[in-house]
Amino acid sequence: MPVKDNLKDKLDGEELDLSMGNLTKVPVKELAALPKATVIDLSCNQLQTLPDNIGILSHIIKLDLSKNQLTGLPNGIGNLPKLQHLDLLGNKIRTLPTSFAQLKALRWLDMKENPLEESLRRVVGDCLNDKECKICATRVLAYMKNKKTETEKERQKELQMLKEQQAKTDKLKKKEDEKQRELKKKQKMEEKEMRRRLYEEQEAERRLEEMQADEENDEDTSYEGNGDTSIDNKQYTKSGVSCWSILVSIIFLLVAMPIGIFFYCDSHSNLSDCRVFNGYVDQLHKYIQKVAKQAGIS
Questions:
Q1: Residue 64 forms beta bridges with which residues?
Q2: Cα(218)–Cα(231) distance, rounded to whole angstroms?
Q3: Angle (CA) 164 169 170, round 5°
Q4: How do beta strands 15-17 and 11-12 pair?
Q5: Is 194 helix (H, G, I), strand (E, B) or coil?
Q6: DSSP label of 131
Q7: Strands 85-87 and 15-17
Q8: 109 CB contacts (<8 Å, ≥6 apart)?
Q9: How far apart, in whole angstroms, are the C-alpha atoms of residue 106 and residue 140?
């Protein structure tokens, strides 16, 4: 590859002739150091590709790349704002990058002897003379602008589709997340309900055990109470029998004593006590007769 000094030796005014040098790469950095070289001839070399940083050669006005092996141009080609003349004759180019539409200063273009795609070939034309090459430049720029617009529309359409797809995916994800949240919420509610039921069952069992324990305590207390009552009843019965016996005895004595005294005094009427007793008996007899007479009893 030629070094900077060698390039300077090849510089003739504004023209730099690097043709027929079997170059396989373009010395971009060295060319960028020669801003005076506005016309560069790289024809008849072995170039298959151009570096994308070719756009740093913004000072180039005329560029000859004819008779190489180029299969295409990099996007950086659109960063040559001063390029007016471009020769691509005799390469293997099929299509051009959309950035080609940015070459607003381009006035001359030759693309003969390239395997161009049909739509581009019809736009390029024959380029048999200088006039046709100028027309070719104008038509190709318009074609690439339209293609760039269409490509941009397609890109925007794809971006919109991707955006819609992403929105749809986000919506589905949001719906799925909401579904999962509802499912978790439902599971938590079911778990809470199960815990509540278990708690109620445990409470019911505890209350039942307490009731059973209270009933057992009541039975024990009742049994003890019944035992005391039986003893009291027995004592009461015994006491009652004793009281009745005493009462009957008293009544018997109260009846028997007057009768006994009556019969005793009837046979011993001469005794002073018996006379008094008999007097009480006579008064009682008279009182009874009087009451009977008043009651109409004879």
A1: 41, 87
A2: 20
A3: 95
A4: antiparallel
A5: helix
A6: H
A7: unpaired
A8: 86, 87, 88, 124, 127, 133, 136, 137, 140
A9: 10
Token readout for 84 is 């007016």
Tally of residues, the chain: 298
Query: Burial of 105 by CB count in 10 Å (0-12 exposed, 13-18 middle, 19+ buried)?
Result: middle
Q: How many CB atoms lie within 10 A of CB 69?
A: 13
Structure tokens at 281: 């008996």
User: CA-based Rg of the chain, rounded to a whole angstrom?
Assistant: 71
Contacts of residues 17-20 at CB distance under 8 Å and 24 or more positions apart, as own/partner, are 17/41, 18/42, 18/45, 19/43, 19/44, 19/45, 19/64, 20/44, 20/45
Q: Which pLDDT tens digit goes with each residue over 99-120?
A: 999 999 999 999 999 999 999 9
Distance CA 93, CA 109 (A): 14
Q: Per 3-state DSSP, what percentage of the chain is helix, strand, and coil (rounded to 5)?
A: 65, 5, 30
CA neighbor of 98 nearest in space, from 67, 72, 122: 72
Residue 24: HSE in the Cβ half-sphere, 13 Å Cα cutoff: 0
CB 97 within 8 A of CB 78: yes
Task: Please give the backbone phi and psi of residue 64, each rounded to the nearest 5 degrees, phi first.
Answer: -110, 115
Enter the tokens of residue 262: 């009556």
CA gap 31, 50 in Å, rounded: 13
Write out pLDDT tens, residues 168-194: 888 888 888 988 999 999 999 899 998
d(CA 136, CA 104): 14
Distance CA 28, CA 54 (A): 6
The amino acid that residue 198 corresponds to is L
Asked whether the beta carbons of 93 and 73 are under 8 A apart, the reply is yes
Instruction: Look up the pTM and report it.
Output: 0.56
Mean pLDDT confidence for 150-156: 86
Between CA 123 and CA 40 the distance in angstroms is: 26
